[in-house]
Structure formats: C-alpha cells, structure tokens
Amino acid sequence: MNFTPRLFALLSFLILSSCTVLQAQADKLQAVVEQLRAIDTRGKGSSSGDVPPTAQKLLPQFKAGLREIIGRTIHDHYSSSSSPEILHDLILTDLKKAGIEALSRVQRDGYYTADGDDFGYLYDVTVRQPERHPDLVAVVTNLTIPCGSDASLNLYRRTGATWQLILVAESNGYATIGGAQGSFQFAISPPDNEGNWFVVAADVNPWCSSNWQQIRYKVLRPGEDFNHSQVLLDEHTTIYLGVDQPYRLTVSPGGFEIRHVAAQGLDDSILTRVHVQKYEVNGNRVTRVPPLALAPEDFLDEWVEMKWESASTWVSSTDTAKLQYWHSRLSKQARANLDTEFAFVQPCPVAANVSKWQIGLQLEGTGEHVLPGDSPDELFFTISKRDGAFYVESIGKDRPLGCPGEALPRGARDALP
C-alpha cells in the first residue's frame, strides 16, 4: 500500500496548522502593540509618572508575546555551533515578521524626543552566552515607557536538543514608571564545584526628573518554573545618575559586587562617593563582606548609616559602649539638625602591617538649631584597615597623639574604579 499521498497530506496539514497558529499569535501581539501605542503619554498629567490601567494590563502581554517568539526562534535555530550574534539577528528577523521592529540606533539616540516617550515600542534586544555556561543563553528585551525603559531577562537552558525557559526576571503591574526595570544589568556566576550558580539582576527605577533614584538588586536561582525563581536577596538603595557610569556589577564563583555612585552623607561639600556592596553567596545564604568602602572617610560614612547590630562587627575596641553612643548620635536621623564636615583625613604611620587614619569631623547646628551642650565642635576618629577591611578603633572629643598632620579628604569621587 502506498502511504505517500496520505503522509504528504498529513504533513501539509501540520505545516498549515502551525502557520495558522503562528499567524494568530502574531496578530494577537500586534493588537496589543497597537493598543499600547494608542495610549496618550503627552497629555495633561503625563509627567506624573503614573502608568494608565490599560498599560498595566497590556505590558505583561507584550512581554509574554515577545517571549513566545524568542523561545520559538531559539528552539528552531540555536545550536552549539551558533553564536549570540547570529541568534540576535534571527530573533530580530522573526520579530519583524510578526510586525515588531526594534528601534534603530538613530531612534535610540533620540530616545526622549522621538517614539521613546510612548508605550508599545521595542527599544532593543540583547543576547548573551554566559561565560562557562554553554548550556545557557540569556535574552534581554527592553520596552519603551515614558522617561525610561523596561527590561526583561529571559534565561534558557538546553537539555539535549530542547531549549527550556528556566528563569524570567521582570516587573509587571506597576502603577508608576518607577516600577519598571530601567538601566538593567545582570550577571551569572560561574558554576561552583557542585555545578550550582546564581543570577544577579540589578536595575534603576526610571523617572522623569532628578538624578537621585533607587538602585535595586536581587540574587536569584531557578525555581520550580520560570515564573517562580528562588529569591536569595532583594535590596535597594539610593543612586546618583549624574555621572557617566552610575553603577557596575561584577560576579565571581562565590559572590558578587555592585559599585555605585551615591551621596557622601557626612560631608555635603563632597557630594558623592563610590558605594560598595559586596556579598558572599554560600548555598542559599547571602552575606555582606568587606570592603564596605574604598576610603576611610567613606567607610565612616557607611558605618554611621548601619544599624548597630551590623556596625558593631566593624569595630576594634574594648570600649564598644562609647562607640555605640557616638554611632547613635551620628545616625542619619540624629543628624537632622546637625551639619558635619570633614576637617582632615590624616594617614598615620603604618605599624605591624595595619594602616591607620585619624579623621576630624566638624559639627555645627543647622539654621535656628544649635549644638546640644554635650556635643563638641569636632570629633576625632581613629580608623584602621587590615586584611582589606576597615574598623573603627576610637571616637573622642580629644585628638589622640601619634598621628600629626591634617591632610584633606580626597573630595568628590564619582568614577568607578
């Protein structure tokens, strides 16, 4: 019996059905895009940062539609002999067939004066093959929103001949543009001896004004499915954006580090300093480790902002009660009516491979407020450094002997070393 006509008919039916499904998905995605682009972002009140309910509903659909096309492209075309550059071009081609075209470089450069203030456009797509992970491929899509962009990380893993989506890091349902993942960076750790690894995802909230915003970062591992990742750490802090490179993320087999530019709280005249957030990842435990700062005066600024439970780790003194007293007096809340400024940051002679500094901190009241009667005009701190970590050795109203000189602090530091 000749089965060829029957087999041909079956194959034709399957191909036709597949094309019909793909066209239906493309039509659905195009309808979502058209609705997003129809939202008026230039009308009255558009600069408030509010995201209309319609956009809140459609943005997750836009992301999911892009993910469907990208996943199909990876499944059909990506292999060990391919490259991220080839996959990038294939993804853009398949998205274009579905009616979704990424902004050109010229459009991206004119982002805030062209279509970049609208919903419904694909800002760009990036594809990366994580180092030492031949079985992983990461695709980041960036969507345009008013005053910023919104990134989604999609991580795929190859098992045999099949690619599976194992982790998604994105934000949905936000009521203001500040909920979007702007200025997005991610890093994947090399596998440890047991083959385990983690993802660090960092972003800065978009906004229409001010260089002072929030940097947010998470440590993730794949969970039971791509929508339910294990979250090992979820933190946020202030960042200053008025520099060429506001933050940098690096990762190692046992941890990661984020360096970002933010305020120097103890001396407004310096304005900014480089903040260091370094963590060790051991199993599902994430612990902050030194360095806490790059300079002794920056460490002191970091130390007074910590809760005492953490700050007490970084003291080297038998008189911890005295250090705790001044720690509480210099906390951000306690300094509400107090101006402080560094008088000097003097290096001391090195002894026994331990570096030391004396820091003079001037204190005065603000406006109508005067210094409390028990507050000195100047406090003196002794800071030491050993094994890469700073410690507070002493705080007092009188300057200790043995470290003459009044070297000035280095001033504003807004370049990431």
Helix percentage: 10-25%
Mean pLDDT: 90
N/C terminus separation: 76 Å
Q: In what range is the share of β-strand residues?
A: 25-35%
Low-confidence stretches: 10-18, 112-116
Q: Given the helix and strand composition, which structural class is it?
A: alpha+beta
Question: What is the approximate shape?
Answer: elongated
Please summarize the sheet with the most strands. 4 strands, antiparallel
Helix and strand element order: HHHHEEEEEEEEEEEEHHHEEEE
- Count of distinct strands: 16
Q: What's the helix count?
A: 7
Radius of gyration from CA coordinates: 27 Å
Q: What is the spatial order of strands in the main beta sheet?
A: 1-2-3-4
Description of the molecule:
- With 417 residues, this protein is α+β, with helices and mostly antiparallel strands.
- Helix content is 24%, strand content 33%.
- It has 7 helices and 16 strands.
- It has helices at 4-37, 53-77, 84-97, 105-109, 296-305, 308-311, 320-329, and strands spanning 122-128, 136-145, 148-159, 162-169, 182-188, 199-204, 212-221, 230-240, 247-252, 255-263, 272-282, 285-288, 338-347, 355-365, 378-386, 389-396.
- The strands form 4 sheets. The protein has a 4-stranded antiparallel sheet with strand order 1-2-3-4.
- Helix 1 (4-37) runs antiparallel to helix 2 and helix 2 (53-77) crosses helix 3.
- The protein is elongated.
- The chain starts with a helix and ends in a 21-residue tail after the last strand.
